[in-house]
């Protein structure tokens, strides 16, 4: 009988560069759980608008996109994620992952039919297809990046009560800059009023961090540079202003 190779076993590693720690299953449960949880790190989920056509009606949908290269974005790349390893390694690791991650951003959750042209949302899909595509999100750690899409906030409003970290981008090709910053400022100011209870409950009450990545020479008022008050209750920091490749405007709640 021929000797079986390592490729014959579904549990053998196919890479000689990654050794297997065989005693791992015999470690105390508490230690194993700590090791699994150490793989949970912040990620950036890049959502971008794609256009599909239903007969003669355009449908706009958010899809997860590859991380942009450093040369095409003012946002630094995210570190590698071990989420897939947690979900697929074994029942124990998957149970840990499910304690920290939830399914979100199904393609059906983010459909907008003829957005901006007077059309309503498309009919909801049948239940069997409602979660055909989704993404795992850790709401405490993950940054939700909606890119440069006009009105991109509307695509993630369904999850407004869960999102804590939000990011978008702008540049000279999509806006003069002034309008973009005014929209962000006004949005945060209105959100503050709602959080205070003056206009009712605010769905964005859990939001704690907003980043705006700005490419090239988009306008930025001198009074907003450095740390300072952007909106009452929010701290502002400008990162990467000196490198000439754009900058990131970081706003964090102070309460």
TrEMBL record:
Lineage of the organism: Eukaryota, Fungi, Dikarya, Ascomycota, Pezizomycotina
InterPro entries reported in the protein's UniProt record: 2EXR (IPR045518)
Domain (2EXR) ranges: 21-144
Organism for this UniProt entry: Sordaria macrospora
Pfam family of the protein (one): 2EXR
Name of protein: 2EXR domain-containing protein
């Amino acid at each position: 009988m021929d000797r079986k190779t390592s490729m014959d076993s579904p549990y053998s590693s196919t890479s000689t560069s990654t050794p297997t720690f065989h005693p791992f299953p015999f470690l105390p449960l508490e230690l194993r759980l700590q090791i699994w949880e150490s793989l949970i790190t912040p990620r950036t989920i890049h959502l971008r608008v794609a256009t599909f056509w239903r007969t003669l009606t355009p449908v706009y949908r958010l899809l997860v996109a590859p991380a942009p290269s450093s040369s095409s974005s003012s946002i630094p790349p995210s570190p590698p994620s071990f989420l897939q390893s947690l979900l697929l390694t074994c029942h124990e690791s998957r149970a840990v992952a499910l304690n920290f991650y939830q399914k979100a951003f199904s393609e059906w959750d983010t459909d907008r039919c003829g957005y901006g042209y007077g059309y309503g949302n498309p009919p909801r899909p049948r239940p069997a297809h409602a979660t055909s595509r989704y993404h795992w999100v850790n709401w405490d750690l993950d940054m939700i990046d909606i890119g440069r899409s006009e009105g991109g906030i509307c695509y993630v409003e369904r999850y407004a009560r869960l999102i804590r970290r939000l990011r978008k981008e702008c540049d000279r090709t999509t806006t003069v800059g002034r309008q973009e910053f005014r929209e962000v400022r006004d949005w945060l100011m209105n959100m503050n009023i709602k959080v205070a209870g003056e206009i009712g409950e605010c769905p964005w009450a859990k939001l704690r961090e907003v980043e705006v990545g700005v490419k090239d020479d988009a306008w930025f008022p001198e009074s907003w540079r450095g740390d300072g008050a952007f909106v009452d209750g929010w701290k502002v920091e400008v990162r990467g202003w000196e490198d000439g490749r754009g900058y990131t405007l970081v706003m964090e709640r102070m309460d």
